[in-house]
Specification:
2 domains; 60s Ribosomal Protein L30, Chain: A
Length: 156
């Protein structure tokens, strides 16, 4: 092996670690992305995708309590909104070929941190141990003035 190729290989190993893929194969897969599109979750209401598959991960866009069948917004109690949000999130994750058990990170956006306990209870119904890493953040405002929005990253 030439010195340059050896250095490139070692550099690849240092950056991405040893794997079954060569540096060239890994680099090629890093640039590929695939859109997730399912009728079981609300259509995107802006210039974004329901989710993206890239480099072995699923990146699910933040879901709000929109009924995918009717397009209607659930403006009920935060518990109802949380159930619909997580049902929508699950639909996107499953449409990718992954599952809720493979979710590694969630971000929960709340209109009011006083709703944390109620949302946390509902959230616990959708995930099993080991639970995903998570952040919960109170924000000034959410799309369509909903009470909760959740996004996730999963392993494909």
């Amino acid at each position: 092996m030439k010195r340059r190729e050896a250095i490139i290989s070692l550099g690849c190993m240092a950056v991405i670690g040893p794997s079954l893929f060569s540096c060239k194969e890994r680099k090629r897969s890093d640039t590929m992305k695939q859109e997730i599109n399912t009728e079981n979750a609300p259509k995107a209401i802006g210039p974004y995708s329901q989710g993206i598959i890239a480099n072995g991960f699923v990146f699910a866009s933040g879901q709000i309590p929109l009924d995918p069948a009717t397009g209607e917004l659930n403006t009920g109690p935060v518990e109802e909104q949380a159930h619909l949000v997580l049902t929508n999130l699950k639909a996107v994750i499953e449409a990718s070929g992954s599952s809720m058990d493979k979710v590694v990170k969630c971000t929960v956006f709340l209109e009011d941190m006083d709703d944390y306990g109620a949302v946390n209870t509902i959230y616990g119904e959708y995930f099993n141990a080991p639970y995903p890493a998570r952040a919960a953040i109170q924000v000034a405002r959410l799309p369509k003035d909903v009470k909760v929005e959740i996004e996730a990253i999963a392993i494909l």
